[in-house]
């Protein structure tokens, strides 16, 4: 059985909810990623921040990224998967919620992220095609 832990990208990092969006952008640059999980004061997942969120939800709205926090951008219920979950559960979660990145949690701590690139490296062409059709289809 292939698990979420087998296909995830290890070494994912949180951005604390109190950090500003300019700091989040710097961290994304340094880590070469397009999304960061947001942690609350108890190191629990409270959202996901993407580079698009920063541009569309902050800069394009005329707000100062040095004044807006990651926590202020967190919306909705964050989705995640346990490291021991089967890859079919990963696909179900991502397809069901039409998401492209999924934090992986083990013992209540962030241990990795699963992205489109991780899926492309570890899944069959058929699995990737099905996932892409579900996630990118117009609702």
Helix/strand class: alpha/beta
Helix content: 40-55%
Count the E strands. Answer: 7
Biggest β-sheet description: 4 strands, mixed
Q: Roughly how many Å is the radius of gyration?
A: 15 Å
Query: DSSP strand (E) fraction?
Result: 15-25%
**Overall pLDDT, averaged?**
91
The coarse silhouette is globular
Q: Give me the number of helical elements.
A: 7
Indicate the low-confidence ranges by residue numbers.
none
Q: Could you give the order of strands across the largest sheet?
A: 1-7-6-5
Name the helix and strand elements from N-terminus to C-terminus, one letter apiece: HEEHEEHHEHEEHH
Terminal residue distance: 32 Å
Describe this entry's structure for a reader.
The chain is an alpha/beta fold and 139 residues long. The protein has helices spanning 4-7, 21-31, 51-57, 70-73, 87-97, 116-122, 125-136, and strands at 9-10, 15-16, 35-39, 45-50, 81-82, 102-106, 109-114. The strands form two sheets. It has a four-stranded mixed sheet with strand order 1-7-6-5. The mean pLDDT is 91.
Structure described in brief:
With 139 residues, the chain is an alpha/beta fold. The protein is 40% helix and 20% strand.
């Amino acid at each position: 059985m292939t698990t979420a832990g087998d296909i995830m990208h290890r070494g994912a990092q949180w951005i604390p909810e109190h950090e500003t969006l300019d700091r989040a952008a710097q961290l994304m640059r340094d880590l070469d990623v397009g999304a960061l999980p947001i942690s609350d004061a108890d190191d629990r997942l409270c959202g996901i921040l993407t580079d698009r969120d920063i541009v569309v939800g902050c800069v394009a709205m005329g707000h100062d990224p040095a004044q807006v926090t990651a926590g202020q951008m967190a919306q909705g219920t964050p989705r995640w998967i346990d490291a021991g979950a089967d890859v079919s559960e990963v696909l179900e979660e991502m397809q069901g919620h039409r998401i492209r990145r999924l934090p992986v949690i083990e013992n209540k701590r962030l241990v990795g992220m699963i992205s489109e690139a991780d899926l492309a490296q570890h899944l069959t062409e058929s699995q990737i095609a099905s996932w892409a059709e579900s996630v990118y289809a117009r609702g």
